Amino acid sequence: MLTAGTGGADPVLAAGELAVFSHPGGGSPLTAAVDLLRGLDLPPETTDAEAAWFGFLGYDAARDFERLPSRHPATDRPVYEFFLPEVLVRFAEGRVIGRGRTPAAARTAAEQVARTLTGPAVAPLGRVAVGAGRFGFAYDEYVEAVRRARRHILDGDVFQLVLSNAWTAPATVDGLRVYERLTAINPSPYHFWHAGPRFEAVGASPEPCLTLSGGKALIRPLAGTRRRGRDEHADRLAEEDLCT
User: Fold this and answer.
1) What SS3 state is found at 111?
2) Which run of H or E residues covers position 175?
3) Quick count: other Cβ atoms within 10 Å of Cβ 190?
4) Which of 26, 63, 137, 182 has the smallest set of CB atoms within 10 Å of its CB?
5) Three-state SS for 170?
6) Is 121 helix (H, G, I), strand (E, B) or coil?
7) What is the pLDDT of residues 134-167, one digit of tens each?
8) Whole-number Å distance between alpha carbons of 135 and 71
9) pLDDT tens-digit series, residues 80-130
10) pTM for the complete prediction?
């Protein structure tokens, strides 16, 4: 497996499979992945990145913790797929970290990746083809979904909803090339590419969901709210606060 990502100015590439945790969801709590990491005997100087899973966590993981309706249509993608990398490349530091059952195995893995990175550039993908796409919602269905969302807000069931409309299309394209192009044209500070045995995921986000470092949690949500002020001046101050 391979996972690449940029978080600010710290691009990272993780490769290999010292351990894999993949499940379609249901009956295998996500906490099992945390418990496995907690049970590893790691050296005291191990960094957070070296003691972390890399991979993919889908929205449907919430169904392991909440009573939610089944998803339709169902997908054959795992709800979560994590791996402990055999090699971790930290480009900002110029470091290639190898790991394995023995020091020799770790060194060999790191040297192989280092040779690949310093070798000739990968040839560009020749053919890119995208077929006809379709939206997950028809126009009338989307309008009705908005009406239902408004009712749930007025009834107090929720305070915010995101009505995404998925667009899908068959394509012949290499995920890594999509990732490279996305990082070049999209100013988002967070990009990711995950290549597993059955699927690839490529994306960009202007906000991290959650970052944990040194026992401190950090969130930087794109959306936010403030109470209405007593006058126009107070509203303007709240607006400026949301922009910072």
Assistant:
1) helix
2) helix 175-185
3) 17
4) 26
5) coil
6) coil
7) 998 899 999 999 999 999 999 998 877 888 888 9
8) 17
9) 889 999 999 988 888 899 988 888 999 999 999 998 888 766 556 557 788
10) 0.75
